[in-house]
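Supplementary Methods, section 5.1.

A reviewer requested that the exact input to the structure prediction be made available. We therefore reproduce it here, unchanged from the version used in the analyses.
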Amino acid sequence: MQPPKSPVLLDLSNCIQGLKQKLQELNQLTARKIADYDPMPKLEVEMQEEGFVIKVLSERSCQGLLVFILEAFEELGLDVLQARVSCADSFSLEALGNKEKNEDTGALDAEVVEQVVSKAIQNWREVSEI
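The structure derived from this sequence is encoded token-by-token as follows.
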């Protein structure tokens, strides 16, 4: 049998329990906010006389994303004429792509390029979440 607790110890025990509960709530809230702040990289496609300018930007590093984007370019039949890529603390790609000269391929516009690259980004995200 334990001796009865003094009122001071009871108050202190209740206070500690309350702080533990608040800490758990804060940890859960923080985990949800981190999960919510995982935006898709931003994509912009512009049609120009010499081809397409494709820009992909993300505030965080996106390991493996470049491979998915280059595969999308290949799927589209785009030759990359010039590109700048940074994958250090953030991800940044600016590429100038031109349609390969091939009679078998159909017309290509900025909307189609944006759809295919956007799908590649989505595929990368699904794979990277596993």
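The chain is about 45% helix and 25% strand. These observations are discussed further in the main text.
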